[in-house]
């Protein structure tokens, strides 16, 4: 079975139906990029995948866990899903190292010393080996986002979700973060990435999903999506993005 | 268990056992309540001991009749309320025997007869009741003077202002806010002899009898013994000796103070013991209440931000209730109303009642800002913590609380200072803390300005120390 299976997903806030019946499967080692206009429901969809939002209707199965099943321990599922947010959400009262080791130590995955060793190794891979003892507020946006990625990886997740990880960054910082993500993809991580970085989508994605008005309008290989868009909505969207 | 958890459990256990001890013990020892500031019937002498006609008569009778008793000096109003609520067994406080009171209390035979007089400021031109028209008259609640003045109010057309304390009443007349006051003759003449700048301008009216009171239908044996003892001390001359001792002498000879002790420093050293014990009571109440209120506040704050509807609903209801209620009403409710409701002679010691009062009131305020502090932590923090697989409570403890509490520190410091000051309100239920000590000392020496200045300085010193301590903690945390 696919790693992520989403069937007929609906989500409403009061009368406002934001997701109107989504279907999507993500395979092992696959990198899926989601694009679409603002307000189309991309973040909402991503947040449903680790239960930060509870769907109004529909089914989500992740690594065999059915999220809508009351018996599912959501904390166990979340351990398998790393999430990276647009605004990093580092814990400001903890040092970089403590940010990374908090969850593994609290959840008994690793002893404190093991967790610190893992954390230093992860910091090394994101190019921040010297920042272990720094406090988050002393870091640049790009550095913060790389720490956030390391923090998510510390739980050794099977899937990584990214919600516009570079859109709050100064342009010169974007490259560092995207490099880390590219390396992750190359190492075979299953990833769902909401992004406005069309270049990244073209280069890294196995599949691109175009969302608009709470529905998946079109999906396909990057080449097909960007060079041969079918629906007028996607053509219109790409027109606008490229002209920016 | 962690260290702090052990501390909390131990504290609760201590409070609990204290509670039960105080509810069960004292089967044979009677608790007799008296007023605090009604010289020469009762007043505090140097060193904090109570003296006065009532006190000495009670002592003499108890000796004759072998009565075991514990004296409890509180305000007159509180004494009467506590008697009707079964919190004390008897009251001896220059209490007039009236038809109204006989409905709720049984009285002993009269042990003193006194009339009401009108007193005015030394330089006042008022001599007759008719000159009071349109003016304000100061009265002390529950006294014969108050009852008499009320009965002639409409005839002479004056306004009334009530006080809980004789000394404040005298002062109001002295500074000219009120034109006159009505007071029992022996009390007024004793006060004037001891330096109150008032003069008596009327003869004695509405002579009334003072009696020892118990709750109606209760403690008949105690009442009987009192009457027998009264008869005995009248017969052997003890009674006369006691009355003369107080009505024929000035305050200094009774309290042991000398003229040189009327300077600021002199007053301070003279009253060091009394002030010290009041200060200690204030500090004890403050510290325990701050701890309990902080625990309650944290619980209310956490409930307030919990997912779901029940937690927040409980939290805001409790905050609404105890923040909305004036501290004094809450204190009376817990100390007098609540035991009344339960019945069966259930009692709460004043200190425990005071502590619970402060805990609920300050805890409600603390709960409100703790909730606000947690809400001020960005939602993304909880989401990030949960997305890592941390359970709700772990996320709360490790991520939200440390950040929220940092935001709350200034509010905590503020609340600690408010708690310290609020302890003074608990004097209404008879707790002799720093403010009440001031009232007591002034009741016997009438040195209002110097003593209040002294008390104010002490409060400022503690608040300064508390602020320093808090700032130090704040610096450590950041
Ligand atoms: N908690 C919420 N309560 C009510 N409405 C919400 C909530 N979260 C999102 N919405 C609404 O859902 C819609 C989709 O929002 P969402 O954040 O998923 O869009 P998006 O595709 O991620 O947009 P962007 O590219 O701007 O991030 C928007 O109209 C938004 O106003
Ligand atoms: Mg979004």
UniProtKB/TrEMBL annotation, chain A:
Check the record and name the CDD domains matching this protein. Answer: ABC_HisP_GlnQ
UniProt xrefs under InterPro entries: AAA+_ATPase, ABC_ATPase_HisP-typ, ABC_transporter-like_ATP-bd, ABC_transporter-like_CS, MetN_ABC_transporter-like, P-loop_NTPase
Q: Where's the ABC transporter domain? A: 4-238
The lineage's top-level taxon is: Bacteria
Q: Does the keyword Transmembrane helix apply?
A: no
Keywords from the UniProt entry: ATP-binding, Nucleotide-binding, Transport
Q: Name one GO molecular function term.
A: ABC-type amino acid transporter activity
What SUPFAM superfamilies does the entry give?
P-loop containing nucleoside triphosphate hydrolases
Q: Give the residue spans that cross the bilayer.
A: none
Extract the Gene3D superfamilies matched here.
P-loop containing nucleotide triphosphate hydrolases
Which named protein is this? Glutamine ABC transporter, ATP-binding protein [Lactobacillus plantarum JDM1]
UniProtKB/TrEMBL annotation, chain B:
What do the Gene Ontology cellular component annotations say? ATP-binding cassette (ABC) transporter complex
CDD domains with a match to the protein in the record: PBP2_GlnP, TM_PBP2
Q: Which InterPro entries does this entry report, sorted A to Z? A: AA_ABC_transptr_permease_3TM (IPR010065), ArtM/GltK/GlnP/TcyL/YhdX-like (IPR043429), Iontro_rcpt_C (IPR001320), MetI-like (IPR000515), MetI-like_sf (IPR035906), Solute-binding_3/MltF_N (IPR001638)
Residues in the signal sequence: 1-25
GO molecular function terms here?
Answer: ligand-gated monoatomic ion channel activity
Topology in the membrane? Answer: Multi-pass membrane protein
Q: Where is the ABC transmembrane type-1 domain?
A: 279-470
Gene Ontology biological-process entries = amino acid transport
Could you list this entry's UniProt keywords, alphabetically sorted: Cell membrane, Membrane, Signal, Transmembrane, Transmembrane helix, Transport
List localization entries. Cell membrane
Q: Where are the transmembrane segments?
A: 279-306, 318-338, 344-361, 425-443, 449-469
The record's section on SMART domains has: PBPb, PBPe
Instruction: Give the Pfam families listed for this entry.
Output: BPD_transp_1, SBP_bac_3
PANTHER family noted in UniProt: ABC TRANSPORTER MEMBRANE SPANNING PERMEASE-GLUTAMINE TRANSPORT, MEMBRANE COMPONENT OF AMINO ACID ABC TRANSPORTER
Record-stated family: Belongs to the binding-protein-dependent transport system permease family.
Q: What is this protein called?
A: Glutamine ABC superfamily ATP binding cassette transporter, substrate binding and permease protein [Lactobacillus plantarum ZJ316]
Species of provenance: Lactiplantibacillus mudanjiangensis
């Amino acid at each position: 079975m696919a790693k992520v299976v989403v069937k007929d997903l609906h989500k409403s806030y009061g009368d406002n139906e934001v997701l109107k019946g989504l279907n999507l499967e993500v395979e092992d080692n696959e990198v899926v990029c989601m694009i679409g206009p603002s307000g189309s429901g991309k973040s909402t969809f991503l947040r449903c995948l680790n239960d930060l939002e509870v769907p109004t209707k529909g089914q989500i199965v992740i690594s065999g866990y059915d999220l809508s099943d009351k018996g599912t321990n959501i904390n166990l599922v979340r351990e398998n899903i790393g999430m990276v947010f647009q605004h990093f959400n580092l814990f400001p009262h903890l040092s970089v190292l403590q940010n990374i080791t908090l969850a593994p130590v609290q959840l008994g995955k690793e002893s404190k010393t093991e967790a610190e060793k893992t954390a230093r190794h992860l910091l090394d891979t994101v190019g921040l080996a010297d920042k272990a003892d720094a406090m988050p507020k002393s870091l640049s946006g790009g550095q913060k986002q790389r720490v956030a990625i390391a923090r998510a990886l510390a739980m050794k997740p099977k899937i990584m979700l990214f919600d516009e990880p570079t859109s709050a960054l100064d342009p010169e910082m974007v490259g560092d973060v995207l490099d880390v993500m590219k390396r992750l993809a190359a190492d075979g991580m299953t990833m769902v990435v909401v992004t406005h970085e069309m270049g990244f989508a073209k280069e890294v994605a196995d599949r691109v999903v175009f969302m608009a008005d709470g529905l998946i309008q079109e999906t396909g290989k990057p080449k097909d999506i960007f060079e041969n868009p079918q629906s007028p909505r996607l053509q219109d969207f790409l027109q606008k993005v490229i002209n920016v | 268990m962690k260290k702090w958890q052990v501390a909390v459990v131990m504290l609760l256990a201590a409070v609990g056992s204290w509670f039960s001890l105080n509810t069960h013990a004292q089967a044979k020892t009677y608790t007799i309540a008296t007023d605090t500031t009604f010289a020469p019937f009762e007043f505090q002498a140097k060193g904090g001991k109570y003296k006065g006609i009532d006190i000495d008569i009670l002592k003499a009778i108890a000796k004759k009749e072998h009565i075991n008793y514990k004296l409890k000096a509180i305000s007159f109003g509180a004494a009467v309320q506590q008697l009707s609520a079964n919190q004390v067994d008897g009251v001896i406080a220059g209490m007039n025997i009236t038809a109204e009171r006989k409905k709720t209390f049984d009285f002993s035979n009269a042990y003193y007869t006194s009339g009401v007089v009108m007193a005015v400021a030394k330089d006042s031109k008022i001599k007759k009741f008719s000159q009071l028209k349109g003016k304000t008259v100061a009265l002390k609640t529950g006294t014969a003077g108050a009852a008499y003045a009320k009965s002639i109010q409409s005839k002479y057309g004056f306004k009334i202002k009530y006080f809980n304390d004789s000394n404040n009443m005298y002062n109001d007349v002295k500074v000219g806010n009120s034109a006159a006051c009505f007071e029992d003759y022996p009390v007024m003449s004793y006060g004037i002899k001891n330096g109150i700048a008032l003069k008596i301008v009327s003869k004695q009216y509405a002579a009334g009898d003072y009696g020892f009171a118990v709750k109606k239908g209760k403690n008949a044996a105690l009442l009987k013994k009192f009457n027998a003892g009264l008869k005995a001390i009248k017969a052997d001359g003890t009674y006369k000796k006691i009355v003369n001792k107080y009505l024929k002498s000035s305050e200094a000879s009774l309290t042991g103070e000398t003229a040189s002790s009327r300077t600021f420093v002199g007053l301070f050293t003279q009253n060091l013991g009394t002030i010290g014990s009041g200060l200690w009571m204030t500090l004890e109440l403050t510290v325990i209440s701050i701890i309990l209120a902080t625990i309650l506040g944290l619980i209310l704050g956490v409930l307030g931000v919990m997912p779901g509807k029940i937690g927040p609903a409980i939290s805001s209801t409790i905050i609404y209730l105890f923040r909305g209620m004036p501290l004094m009403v809450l204190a009376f409710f817990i100390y007098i109303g609540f035991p009344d409701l339960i019945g069966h002679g259930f009692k709460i010691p004043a200190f425990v009642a005071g502590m619970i009062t402060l805990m609920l009131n300050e805890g409600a305020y603390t709960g409100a800002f703790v909730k606000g502090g947690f809400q001020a932590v960005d939602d993304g923090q909880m989401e990030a913590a949960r997305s890592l697989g941390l359970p709700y409570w772990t996320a709360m403890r490790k991520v939200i609380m440390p950040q929220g509490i940092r935001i709350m520190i200034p509010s905590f410091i503020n609340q600690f200072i408010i708690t310290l000051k609020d302890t003074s309100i608990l004097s209404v239920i008879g707790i002799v803390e720093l403010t009440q000590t001031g009232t007591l000392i002034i009741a016997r020496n009438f040195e209002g300005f110097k003593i209040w200045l002294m008390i104010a300085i002490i409060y400022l010193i503690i608040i300064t120390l508390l602020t320093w301590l808090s700032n130090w903690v704040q610096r450590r945390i950041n």
